[in-house]
Amino acid sequence: MSALDWIVVAGYFLVVVAIGWWSKQRVHTVADFFTARGRIPWWLSGISHHMSGYSAVMFVAFAAVAYNDGITVYFWWPLTIGLGVGIGAFLFAARWNRLRAKHDVKSPLEYLARRYNLPTQQVLAYSGAALKVVDIAAKWVAISVLLKGFADIPLEVGIIFTGIATMAYMTVGGLWADVLTDMGQFVVQAVAGFAMLVAVMIELGADFPFTMWGDLPDGHGDPVAGSVTTWLIIAFLFVKTFEYNGGMWNLAQRYMAAPSGTEARRSALLSCGLWLVWPLILFLPMVAAPLIVPGLTAGEESYVALSKELLPAGLIGLMLAGFFSHTMAMVASDSNVITAVITRDIAPVLVPKVRRLTERAQLTFARVTTVLFVSLSMTIAITTRGEGFVLDTVVQLVAATMGPISIPLMLGLLPWFRRIGPTAAIVSWAGGLLVWYVVRYQIDGSTEAAIVGLPLLTSLVLYLGIGFLKPEGTAESEELVLSLNTDPDDDGSEERPGRSEVAAG
């Protein structure tokens, strides 16, 4: 990397620091820290929702799939997410927002104690938090792989540097810093993504990408290729519908932070459109990489090799800044919501006096928890190392266990299932995780479709079957679910922030 590249990267970090300190002026309470009190405009919430799904993993693990198998990477990842978010726009988005507006919920799991019972809330909180620690560790490994490829920076140094930078702005700025960093990430990614697309077009000719398919290895133009099967795509569609509409808790926060349920739905539709279109711009150069940097033995290195081959000084730095922004924004997002779960759902049960902390003390506790959580994930990343850890963790562990964790959480919001109680919730969670363990570790030769899809299907069948055979709904839980059908201003129970207040923050 040239001096100009490092100047670009340094400039990006200065912007991140500025965003953190500017956001600090808006954070006075835990409600500001976790949900911005519903004052984030729908368009910013939608962009943040979309960008929170990216990390450096895409430019390592998914770039490897594009290099080895071709365009199928679009069909099993962003297409399934886009369709899933579109479905969730009408099922889940508004209901998440109304939990905050009507019930003062600051954590996606906070409502579970009322919806089911305290044990249900606790098992989902602990298992989800443990999953997120490993998930974030995989993202630290991904960014360190890119740093080593671009600048030969040791893995440990890359993880520590990126982690400390993330903590520096996240702990002071909360959700405001997170969504504004997502917006900055969107701008950086747009410039860098189009720069790479144009560079590949110059290299391969103006008719790119239409004529490249015959020159690529066999099968690289097929929607289903390599280890990707039709059943895997279907499994991912089901998993991503739950994951990206709240099963991945930080994305529920984006809906909660919008001004109203109606505007949360608009933000979901914006995110849906971005998922269906924008990843094509990013993936087409990855798919074309075998024509420009052929013969790589490790597909994880393909995007780094492509950047070095095609991009001039300055743009490589911008690309690296984009990798930083992807990972830092996603980790900041996950850290914020995990902190919310720990401070709102786990800690008060373990140490009841936490409930009696002052607003200032609660905010300090949230910030300290953020630092500890990020530090733990960095430690796991440093001790595990290795590119294979990235793909195995993100695709198999996270995707497969997301279903059992999210089924009770997500379906518990919908009125059709309001009489389903805690027995169904806990059994479906335990049954799904058990099936994942058996399929993943006890049965030889299990396909990825089975590893990803069967746990979710098991949880879904158990939740619905036990729930309808043994309804346990209470008057309080049914009232909670039914209250999420309308915005506060529609039923007169409460007024939401006006547009001028949202704009002023």
From TrEMBL:
InterPro entries: Na/Glc_symporter_sf, Na/solute_symporter, Sodium:Solute_Symporter. CDD domains: SLC5sbd_u1 (cd11477). Residues 483-505 are annotated as: Disordered. It is found in: Cell membrane. Keywords: Cell membrane, Ion transport, Membrane, Sodium, Sodium transport, Symport, Transmembrane, Transmembrane helix, Transport. It holds the Pfam family SSF. It catalyses: L-proline(in) + Na(+)(in) = L-proline(out) + Na(+)(out). GO terms for molecular function: symporter activity. PROSITE patterns: NA_SOLUT_SYMP_3. It is a multi-pass membrane protein. The keyword Transit peptide does not apply. The chain crosses the membrane at residues 6-22, 42-67, 73-94, 123-147, 159-179, 186-204, 224-246, 267-293, 313-332, 363-382, 394-417, 424-443, 449-469. Signal peptide: none annotated. GO terms for cellular component: plasma membrane. The keyword Flavoprotein does not apply. It comes from the Bacteria. GO terms for biological process: sodium ion transport. Belongs to the sodium:solute symporter (SSF) (TC 2.A.21) family. This is Na+:solute symporter.
